[in-house]
Design brief:
mainly alpha
């Protein structure tokens, strides 16, 4: 039955060509007084017109759903930020040297869209990232200055001295205690739900091509992300490559959603 619907839909897409053909067949049947040919022509024409009109109505409804699609994308983006904030806190030791600057810029940009219950959690994640980035930058600059003329022992002493500075140490101690708490709680990294996106996959052609391609790309990437999250849950040991893959995939999807929300903002 599904294959029949697909075939009829394909025929409906070619209606501008098929209608004249069936009209010609009907005229021929009428002129030749061929009742079978005439009746078949009328029957097929009726079926095609019915499918075509239904297809037009379906596409109209899908296009009308665009604001709802964008709204779901906005909720998906918030879910991605929520997941990543928890993920980063739990796996900070594996992610602290990964370049996720674009994602953190996006998170700060979208803070105004976050629900109240997420603000503190996300803020802690951003503070941890920024504190560590400043710390790494400071150490890097000091090491670069002395790298050409200092011995390895001198460099080690500089690093140790930086760690002992009270302001930095207090901040790092705070975040280390926070991280330990997160590890004990082990927050659940939730799968991303995309009910509306999944329901319109068969009718993406009703949308403009660029928008449809982006929607399909986002759906595909989120599907892969959910699979990776499930694999991670089932592991007894930490998989560094999987942790990094999840983080980078979240960043890629979030940036893509942010771009389309910026572009289509007037439709929200």
């Amino acid at each position: 039955m599904k294959n029949l619907k697909i075939e009829l839909k394909n025929l409906a897409d070619n209606m501008p060509i098929l209608i004249p053909v069936f009209i010609i067949l009907w005229i021929l049947g009428y002129l030749l007084r061929d009742i079978i040919l005439t009746n078949l022509s009328i029957a097929f024409l009726s079926i095609l017109l019915g499918v075509y009109l239904k297809e037009i109505e379906t596409r109209r409804k899908i296009r009308a759903l665009k604001p709802s699609i964008l709204l779901e994308l906005k909720h998906i983006l918030i879910s991605l930020i929520e997941n990543f904030s928890r993920f980063y806190m739990v796996y900070f030791e594996f992610l602290k040297f990964l370049d996720l600057s674009h994602l953190f810029e996006l998170i700060k940009k979208r803070e105004k869209d976050l629900p109240n219950y997420l603000i503190n959690e996300v803020s802690s994640c951003v503070m941890l990232y920024e504190t560590h980035q400043v710390y790494v930058k400071k150490i890097t600059e000091e090491v670069k200055k002395l790298a050409k003329k200092a011995s390895q022992e001198d460099i080690k002493r500089i690093i140790e001295k930086s760690k002992e500075e009270s302001s930095w140490q207090d901040a790092l101690n705070y975040f280390h205690s926070l991280l330990e708490t997160y590890k004990e709680i082990k927050p659940v990294i939730k799968p991303i739900h995309m009910t509306l996106l999944s329901s319109i996959l068969d009718n993406l052609s009703a949308l403009d091509r660029d928008f449809a391609e982006i929607i399909f790309y986002i759906w595909r990437e989120i599907t892969e992300l959910n699979k990776e999250i499930e694999v991670l849950k089932g592991l007894s040991q930490t998989d560094l490559s999987l942790i990094r893959s999840i983080s980078q995939r979240i960043e890629t999807i979030a940036i893509k959603i942010d771009e389309i929300l910026e572009k289509e903002g007037a439709n929200l």
